[in-house]
Design a protein that fits this description.
The complex is a heterodimer of chains A (about 210) and B (about 675). Chain A has about 210 residues and is α/β, with parallel strands linked by helices. Chain A contains 7 helices and 6 strands; from the N terminus they run E-H-E-E-H-E-H-H-E-H-E-H-H. The longest helix of chain B has 25 residues. The chains are: A alpha/beta (about 210), B alpha+beta (about 675). At the A-B interface, strand 2, helix 2 and helix 4 of A face helix 16, helix 22 and helix 26 of B. Chain B: It holds the Pfam family RabGAP-TBC.
């Protein structure tokens, strides 16, 4: 009988202001999109129950303010993260160029025990805008960057249309679980389950 | 300047004096002296600087000077700052005030970063930020020496300049995995030192002793709170490395003592008016509960609800008339519960908003406000009717002077309008072609455009496509970012501007009112977030002063950084109330009646309203943040304002002294113009 105990997986969403962090989180958790989200001040999170092979997990998804000026807050929010999601807007070059800053800032502030292997997932959001005509970051370019950073899984999403959001978060949850696998602090009783069966076998492009 | 002392700090006259200060109520000082005298290891003073000063208030007469030291013991480096004894001529500056700010041997393992400020004019100062997110008030180096200070630290521990900001030096920031490992290996060695077991620097003993003192210090309500005792059990199991520095705790315990004295004074002064809430029967009851709960916590089966210590400042029914309750606070007469209901404990009842007829009575024939103080007080208790806001807000925000006449104001409006147009023209004249080579401008404009279209769009004033008012928000914010190019635009500003434009309707007047507001709230948006840090620090001090059990609860649950109040403070509760209620709150805050920092007392008041829930449900940081975010739209403003008023009065000058100088919305400090200081590169 597999354990029904719930385990918390903590995920942090980072990226420039206005790339769609709040929208992605709400699309995934509530399957809703609104044009009326306010700029996030401070931080907030939503939770969603996810199930892997008879085990229930609580995915705790943290949404943070995107302006770089608020990064000093990160130290309080990033701690204990199991996975970090880096979001950019495929229509805004700067938001892509900043991914590296977000990644490094996260590693500094969260100081995970094994920064080399800490799981990141990159999402190129807003692929729906203008039928893709206003796009300035090509998928190829994004994938090349992800590859150079230790094969970070990459998804092209639209929070508005709900494109790829579910798949992306499936991957995020699995990576978070795998990360928890290494850190006995967070999954004291359940380490064995994930190790063999939770390899990135279903849909993670990595 | 390097000098070696083999002695421990108990031989330091200043330190001994400050210990003596606390010894009457703190058993810990005795034990610390014992432990230090038996301590074989020597401590070495590797840096010493005199005339390092803090500015608790804006008044030069209330500055506190002291001696800053870096002390090396074993592999650990400590920072201390001890104020001089009896140097002040100011009677208001008691020894207690000095103790509040004393930094006693904080190990660098507890320090996250040091920010240095080396203005070309005025004194250099540093801000020490702890790992918990708390920051000490700025330490001004009257004799210079910041560079030497940082260089000395660098000789002993790992200190790197932040990649983000050349003035921030990050401690223990090991990006190199090897260094990181080494650092983590050092922790077990460093922690016992911090705990005082092997340290002559420490004024505390083992965790048990520490808790003994904490229990002593918490007795504002006359009972050992169950939370406190639960905490005692849990703390033993805590990884010591996760605990805040005990030296910081010791500092807090001094504030605890203030709280006790303040409260006891209140009790003495007001017990006939209802300030006597000590219940002896509760005491034994909660002690009993605690034993049970403590046991269950030991096996990690946390009950859904735990008994919560009564609020020291709360009205609580007492049964035994005339009986005296002997507590650590002092002796109080217990009051009959029937009487208590008749007594007013909290703030005065709110009044209806200021209307046109009454407003006219505040003006002389030429339109001058004759009694500014009375006007502010009146608005504090009732706010302003909506149709008067456009006129009255210009005074509250400081756009118009109270002693200006109708004619003078009319003239000023015209002048300012053309001034606004001039600044606006600066960015409007940037051609598209020019903008291509002006990345900073494009980025700034992009950020503003992203935010104005998501600011209060559900309000009819801002709703719909191509709403001209949304364009006005954009134009004003972009113009402001040229008016104050250094500050630029930061998220949250659109939230602050929106109600102003909604009331003023006029572009230029909105701009200038916003400029006035930003003179006070600008530091909220600084790149280094120092305005926010000082407010969160002050808030932690106020909660400690006004609700010791709640403070202890936050401490035990790693919530002392108060980041869960970040949104409240950054945009002045804009997201917490309905629009109309926000307008009311803001005009009350802007009166600065009682305190410039009433917003911090509002924070305390809200936290106290929900203290029972927060502690009873044993919320951790995450749960608390979520809970606070979800309070949005559910807070009763009038009730909270009454509480905040009462808390502000309760806290009195101790409250004011808990708030570092220059904390927004105070106007920025006049940093003095003693001498120019070159910004030497240090590291």
């Amino acid at each position: 009988m597999p354990s029904r105990r719930r385990t918390l997986l903590k995920v942090i969403i980072l990226g420039d202001s206005g790339v769609g962090k709040t929208s992605l989180m709400n699309q995934y958790v509530n399957r809703k999109f609104s044009n009326q989200y306010k700029a996030t001040i401070g931080a907030d999170f939503l939770t969603k129950e996810v199930q892997f092979e008879d085990r229930l997990f609580t995915l705790q998804i943290w949404d943070t303010a995107g302006q770089e000026r608020f990064q000093s807050l990160g130290v309080a929010f990033y701690r204990g993260a199991d996975c970090c999601v880096l979001v950019y807007d495929v229509n805004v070059m700067k938001s892509f160029e900043n991914l590296n800053n977000w990644r490094e800032e996260f590693l500094i502030q969260a100081s995970p025990s094994d920064p080399e292997n800490f799981p990141f997932v990159v999402l190129g959001n807003k692929v729906d805008v203008d039928g893709g005509n206003s796009r300035v970051v090509s998928e190829k370019k994004a994938r090349a960057w992800c590859a150079s950073k230790g094969n970070i899984p990459y998804f092209e999403t639209s929070a508005k249309e709900g494109i790829n959001v579910e798949d992306a978060f499936q991957c995020i949850a699995k990576d978070a679980l795998k990360s928890g696998d290494d850190e006995e602090i967070y999954l004291p009783d359940t380490i064995d389950v994930a190790s063999s069966s939770q390899q990135r076998s279903t849909g993670c492009e990595c | 300047m390097h000098e070696t002392e083999l002695n421990d700090l108990s031989d330091d006259a200043d330190y001994a004096a400050s210990l003596q200060q606390g010894s009457a109520s703190m058993t810990r000082s005795d034990s610390s002296r014992r432990s230090s005298s038996s301590e074989p290891d020597g401590a070495e003073v590797v840096y010493l600087k005199d005339n390092v000063t803090i500015h608790p208030t804006q008044y030069a007469s209330e500055r506190i000077s002291g001696r800053l030291k870096l002390i090396k013991q074993g592999a650990s480096l400590f920072i201390t700052w001890i104020p001089y004894k009896g140097q002040s001529s100011n009677a208001k500056l008691s020894e207690r005030d000095k103790n509040l700010y004393t930094i006693r041997a904080v190990p660098f393992t507890e320090i996250r970063s040091i920010r240095r400020h080396t203005p070309t004019l005025g004194w250099q100062y540093i801000i020490v930020v702890l790992s918990s997110g708390l920051a000490f008030p700025p330490l001004y180096f009257y004799n210079g020496g910041v560079r030497e200070f940082l260089a000395t630290i660098k000789q002993h521990i790992f200190l790197v300049r932040s990649a983000e900001d050349a003035n921030v030096f990050v401690v223990n920031d090991f990006q190199d995995p090897l260094q990181r490992t080494l650092s983590s290996l050092e922790l077990p060695r460093a922690v016992p030192v911090a705990n005082g077991r092997s340290s002559s620097l420490s004024a505390s003993e083992s965790p048990t002793d520490k808790n003994q003192v904490r229990a002593d210090g918490v007795a504002v309500d006359g009972s050992l709170s169950s939370i406190q005792n639960n905490g005692r059990q849990r703390q033993k199991m805590h990884d010591p490395a996760r605990d805040l520095s005990i030296h910081v705790l010791e500092k807090f315990s001094l504030v605890t003592r203030f709280a006790r004295e303040t409260t006891s004074q209140l009790f003495r002064e007001n017990h006939s008016e209802g300030f006597g809430g000590n219940e002896r029967r509760n005491h034994s009851q909660s002690s009993h509960d605690y034993h049970q709960n403590a046991a269950s916590i030991d096996v990690e089966k946390v009950p859904d609800e735990v008994p919560v210590a009564p609020d020291p400042l709360e009205k609580s029914p007492c049964s035994n008339r005339g009986e005296e309750a002997a507590t650590n606070v002092g002796t109080f007469e217990l009051i009959d519960s029937k009487e208590i209901d008749k007594l007013t404990v909290w703030g005065k009842p709110r009044q209806p908003p200021l209307g046109p007829e009454e407003w006219a009575t505040f003006l002389d024939s030429e339109g001058r406000v004759t009694d500014e103080k009375a006007l502010r007080k009146r608005i504090f208790y009732g706010g302003v009717e909506n149709n008067l806001r456009k006129e009255v807000w210009t005074f509250l925000l400081g756009y118009h002077a109270h002693d200006s006449t109708y004619a003078e104001r009319e003239y000023l409006v015209l002048i300012k309008k053309s001034e606004y147009e001039t600044i606006k023209n600066q960015w409007q004249s940037i051609t598209q072609d020019q903008a291509k080579r002006f990345t900073k401008f494009r980025e700034r404009r992009g950020l503003i455009e992203k935010d104005v279209v998501r600011t209060d769009r559900s309000l009819s004033f801002y709703e719909g496509d191509d709403n001209p008012n949304v364009n006005l928000l954009r134009d004003i914010l972009l113009t402001y970012s040229f008016y104050n190019f250094d500050l630029g635009y930061c998220q949250g500003m659109s939230d602050l501007l929106s109600p102003i434009l909604f009331i003023m309707k006029d572009e230029s007047e909105s701009f200038w009112c916003f400029v006035s507001l930003m003179e006070r709230l600008g530091p909220n948006f600084n790149r280094d977030q120092n305005g926010m840090h000082s407010q969160l620090f002050a808030l932690s001090k106020l909660v400690e002063l006004l609700d010791v059990p709640l403070h202890n609860y936050f401490k035990q649950n790693d919530c002392l950084n108060y980041f869960f109040c970040f949104r409240w403070i950054l945009i002045q509760f804009k997201r917490e109330f309905e629009y109309e209620r926000t307008l009311r709150l803001w005009e009350v805050l802007w009166t600065h009646h009682l305190s410039e920092h009433l917003h911090l007392y509002v924070c305390v008041a809200i936290l106290k309203r929900y203290r029972r829930k927060i502690m009873g449900e044993q919320m951790d940081f995450d749960t608390l943040l979520k809970f606070i975010n979800e309070l949005s739209g559910q807070i009763d403003l009038d009730a909270i304002l009454k509480d905040a008023e009462a808390l502000c009065i309760c806290a009195g000058e101790h409250g004011a002294a808990s708030i570092p100088p220059g904390t927004p919305p105070s106007l920025p400090l006049d940093t003095g113009l003693l001498y120019a200081q070159q910004d030497d590169e240090v590291l």
